[in-house]
Fold this protein.
Amino acid sequence: MAEYDYDLFTIGAGSGGVRASRVAAAHGARVAVAEEYRVGGTCVIRGCVPKKMLVYGAHFAEDLEDARHFGWDIPECRFDWVKLRDNVLGDVDRLNGLYTQTLENHGVEIFHERATITGPHEITLSSGERKTAGYILVATGARPHVPSFPGHELGITSNEAFHLDAIPRRVLIAGAGYIANEFAGIFHEFGARVTLMNRSDQLLRGYDEALRDRLLQISIAKGIDFRFQAAFEKIEKNRDGSLTVFMTNHDPLEVDCVMFATGRVPNIEGLGLDAAGVAVNEGNAIVVDAYSKTSVDHIYAIGDVTDRVQLTPVAIREGQAFADTVFGGKPATVDYSCIPSAVFSHPPIAGVGLTEAQARNQLGAIEVYTSDFRPMKNVVAHRNERALYKMVCDAATGRVVGIHMIGPDAPEIMQVAAVAVKAGLTKADFDATVAIHPTMSEELVLMK
């Protein structure tokens, strides 16, 4: 590919784009990356990493209260949002530098500007400079969806939540997915009055129903309000700066902040995909094959901009597989079965494999084991929240096809449990494993 400036030009330096570019360069390719914002992408800059830091900060609200029951004389504490916000953003700066350094250490050239596909193998930067490449990789990710109705511009998204000057006294969060539930817990623990609004009557579609119901019960007990079967009519700004939200099936609600967590849409606008002949689906996601190739042979796409699973670890695996396939001489695809996931709510949820309903539909005869218990720490802390673990098995073989849990540290426990489900272990294998006592995770090997 000596006739081109680069062997690979990647548009977008998020987790997937960085991995693909770094590995391709390690395979000997000449690589360039264009990123119009900051290296690191959604996860590092305005997503899972800073969000998890806010989750840690929010947990201290309950931990400090619980500590009194464990003998600690805790004085009245004051929470400083600005200090936490600035510390989190400072670490984002650090990670941005590390990701940039990783690319530079592998000889990847970085253009800190927007790029558009303007020819069969041509990319034009916003500065007007034109580059050519044998392969083009689109890894531009996705952005928060904002519904269109009168006054929608008065709301914010998760992007802006990390930069607030203060925690709003009253917050309305629109949506019922993982982002909505995570920020509901964060804002609530920081002292806000939180209302979660959703068009349907369900939370967290795709997760096991028993866990979703448990989270709803706990959230209500904590003081989070819910408005179901509610759609936006309009938002009006009041003289004092507050907002009045008008919605279907419910009375108007006065709040200080409206946050949209109503899904995410692929970033494809202005990339030149139409002119290049790259096909997209009805959701404006780029359509790719098992090897991440688009409808154009030399153009590939990975991550949230495609029509697959919108998770950072998945994008990273797609980037690795792409680089190994195209530049490493080792064709590789990503196995999308049995992907574990988590919701960092309060308390968190984690799951892997089939839910009970999915297993009944696919397998027919199943066996379900549950453990509904009060964690030891909650007992001493006089906290009534109960954890729930569920194991779903194929009745014919005993193979564990799904594990689902809600409770403290559920995502940490789930990572190892997911290995067992992926490996096809049976309920008998779990039963034969000696428990670590006393732990919450021992419930996984004690279910009867």
Q: What stands out?
A: Residues 81-105 form the longest helix (25 residues).
